[in-house]
Write a structure and sequence with these properties.
- Helix content is about 0%, strand content about 50%.
- A hairpin with a 6-residue loop joins β4 and β5.
- It starts with a strand and ends with a strand.
Amino acid sequence: QVELGESGGGLVQTGDSLRLSCAASGRIYSSAFMAWFRQAPGKEREFVAGIRKGVGNTYYADSVKGRFTISRVNAENSFYLQMNSLTPEDTAVYYCAVDRNGYSREVRDMDYWGKGTLVTVSS
């Protein structure tokens, strides 16, 4: 069983940066896909960024490409989301998630979820 825990959320202003962290307990194999999703008030949860644990390939939603960077430290069983040039449209609860095998960007395919961390960007 894998448990995920996010940290690093908070209240920032437009243009600021934040770094989210996701720490995992339990074994995550190299075939896993580690991802960040977000859910804004009144909206569905959406894919933000993902990274394949083994090869390190990264994937981004168009809305964050060029501003957000996902990374992982396999030895620490952790992964991160560096968010730059934040705007109020980035305000949401951010969740880390893991797909044990594959690299789906679909909510329904993720096997493990954290409880989320709130990011609020003021204008």
